[in-house]
Amino acid sequence: MDNKSIQQRAWYMLPARLFLFAGFQALFALGFFLFGNKEAWTTSANWWPIIVGLANIVCLMILLKFFRTEGENYWELFRFQKNSMGKDLLFLLAFLAAAAPLSYLPNVMLGKLLFGDPSATLQLFIRPLPIWAVYVSLIFFSVTQGLVEIPTYMLYIMPRLEKGGMNRWLAILLPTLFLSAQHIAVPLLFDGKFILWRFFMFLPFAFLVAVLMRIRPRLMPYIAIVHILMDASTAMMLFQFAY
Fold it and tell me: What is the enclosing helix (H) or strand (E) of 75?
């Protein structure tokens, strides 16, 4: 496959997840509307964990095809390097210890800045779902996120942008920005403060993860496990509003 086609695919994938999230939510909203729900869009927003999982499945199918077409094996991204497991685990632990504040503090600080109370963001983000959907989300949302999100931006898009001649730091920054931007559609609410909160809350941590993947892509299987556990903890919060 020629390099131009590969570069085009990388550019197409940059906004793909954002559009998939918004598109699936629109489909859910249409379904609720057709069944007579007068608050169809608001109701569709409640289903964001399932929507993200469905979008992830589509994204996974695309990545599998792209990797195969380019003569690579997508699942190799998740292969543990046995000869460096000890060093990799130590490096990962050091990274997580250093980066942990950036995965949490922007969330709280932005919530206080934009809403006056960080807990106000949770009322918009953690939304009611049937109990069965929460159990499905716990696995479906968490696992598909771990398998797809970071690989899409940091192990498919980022290296291909750089191989295409883009400046190294720009090739890191651009996927980071789009990874952060996708969150404005999880869920998509037409609330300016909520959109700002969703965009910026992950930006610093996403940048560090991008740098990590740039220098040590072999850490992907470990990052996938951490990612799944983090998203599972988010899904667990849905139980408090389940019905």
Answer: none
The ranges of the chain with pLDDT < 70 are 1
SS3 category, 110: helix
Tokens matching residue 50: 């399932």
106 touches 196 (CB < 8 A): no
- The terminus-to-terminus CA distance of the chain in angstroms comes to 51
User: 10 and 157 in contact (C-beta within 8 Å)?
Assistant: yes
- Tokens, residue 67: 């990797």
For the record, the structure tokens of 154 come out as 């940091």
What pLDDT does 178 receive? 98
Contacts for 222 with CB less than 8 Å, ≥ 6 apart: 88, 89, 92
Q: What stretches of 10-164 adopt beta strand conformation (E)?
A: none
Q: What is the pLDDT of residues 162-176, one digit of tens each?
A: 999 999 999 999 999
Describe the crossing of helices 220-236 and 131-150 by its angle, rounded to 10 degrees: 160
What's the maximum distance between 2 C-alpha atoms anywhere in the chain? Answer: 59
